[in-house]
Design brief:
Strand order of the largest sheet: 8-7-6-5-4-3-2-1-15-14-13-12-11-10-9
Number of strands: 34
Structural class: alpha+beta
Distance between the termini: 36 Å
Shape: globular
Strand content: 25-35%
Largest sheet: 15 strands, mixed
Helix content: 10-25%
Amino acid sequence: MKIKELSLLTLLACSSSLFAEEQYSYTILVDKGVKAGEQIVKVNDEGEISVRYIFKDNGRGPELDEKISLNKDGFITDYQAKGNTTFGSVINERFKVQGNSASWSTGKDQTKVNYQQNALYLPVDGSPYLSSVAIAALAKSGKNSLPLLPSGTLTQEVVSELIVDNGGEKQQVQLLVQTGVGFEPNFVWATQGENPRLFAYLAPGYLTLVEEGWQQNAKAMLEIQQQAETQLLEKLATLPKKLNGLTLVRNARIFDSQTLKLSAPSDIYLLRGKITSIVPTGSLHSPVEHEIDAANRIVLPGLFDMHGHLSRWEGALHLAAGVTTLRDMGNDNATLQSMIDEIDTDQLLAPTIVPTGFLEGESAYSARNGFVINDLAEAKHAIDWYAAHGYPQLKIYNSFPKDILKDTVSYAHSRGLRVSGHVPAFLKAEDVIAAGFDEIQHINQLMLNFLVKPDTDTRTLDRFYLPAKQVADLDLQSKAVQDFIRLLKSHNVTVDPTLATFDFLKKTDGTVGEPWRAIVTHLPPDIQRAYARAELDIPDEATAERYAKSYAKMIEFVGMMYKAGIPVVAGTDELAGFTLQGELELLVKAGLTASEALQVATLNGARYSNVEQHKGQIKVGFDADLLLVDGDPTQNISDIRKLALVITQGKAIVPTDLYQKLGVKPFVTDSIKIRDFAPDQAQGGGKTSTGHRHLH
């Protein structure tokens, strides 16, 4: 599971110096105040800065040492970083200004440019303390923006202030919002005065990074930060057009997710977020308040991403990619409940959420989401909470105690919940099938069935490196593999392979993973750089070839399972929206037809989210989750990226509009018009247009 990683959340720059020895210590806390890391910042008497940063959660995390020098204006002139990324690849990054030139290297990426004026270098993998250079440099300049290297502009605004307390010591800190990096605003807390620095970074529902000793102020800071975020998110939520009254989508070729066929040109009538009628084009002349000409485009049911971990800022990316329903596979419970409420009241732009209850065992490797339990009584208590809150499914994680697994699964089933998850440490996939699992997440968890020994601890990075190293030698036609496929089939186990996210097993430095090659140049520059670096430690070409062979066999294995009749769903656990499109391409690579891949992402999604009675098909009485697509994704699955319009939750959403707000280059240029008619004319039988809205 790739929960949002800390090293990607704060991508900016470090502390100013008065050339006096200083030291700042930060602590990193996750669920219920559990310490998960620290950051020690030292400034020597020559103004050189060193940062020691380590963050470990869920059995993994980055670890690095940085050395930084600044010029008199607070900009980086020399930067060195060494360490390892979340999954173990080597960090060895350099940046240096010499005269009128600046150069940097990150593995194979070596660049030199003219450097005529100050610009703030943005490392690919930097510590969270790197926000401080931006804060200090902006304070020195007296401006609210500064240029970035390799490209872009960082803008910063003061949002709020708060007096914080540490045992009687008080100071005033500021909440800042920084934009121009990544897809979303970056909220940071900073000290005030002549030399401001990073004070705290809060990821709601996940972690707190704060100067040591000031932890007790986190709750107050979080409340203020979430209010500020809410105001920005509510503005974004006003972007779609509300389809009040009867709406007609005419001239649509409907994809039938059951038969995999396309209809003749049809008219689809929508009211209050539901499909009320489907008829041959032009055969019904009911007056409407909104009319959308599909212009003979293919119209698909909305897509399901069956493996997400939603944050408040990811919803727009999902919707722009056609994901109208998201199965959340593990989140902070209070945060997820709050997001569901916000979506229901149109305060948050995001897909419809199907929540999955996260259940983990207590250990040094625990992922701190949902409930972390010690015994069966605590597991039952958690299941009762999830059942009472309407969760249709439970997800069991790596550290779950194996001695209570079967009883826990049985109890969850008695409360009406499906059970899925990772394979807990020191077990095999065949063991969780015997315990009653209905579904297994991730292709590596399946492959480990053939690789682990009784003492293999899959809570460590071994759960990634073992499949990368050894699947290359696995005979997929062997009796062991064929027996395992029959076991999955006989127990009707669903598989959520998340193939796209495991592309990182073979990704070498300087290359972009297969699922994102078609879209990477559309992304913000800093995101492009992040997606062109290795994540595993792949030291040489021979290792790269072995890992690529292993990954190719994983794709082949998914095709074998599908052909054997094992239910497959389309989940991602990676970059919101875009990754699902790459996942469908990989399913086609595994041997599915484009139409079958679309069926997996629509009908299968609805079926294994327990919402097939009203989602997953374009049928009368079903939710009006519709995608108007340029091209023909039933023949060329890559055309799924050519979304002209998304309709869901009674709203019309233009992907191009959302992408422009998020710093993404759009994929479609043609506009669709929504013709609006006066309500009295629509109800009375006339068709007097009150104008139309161009949707770009």
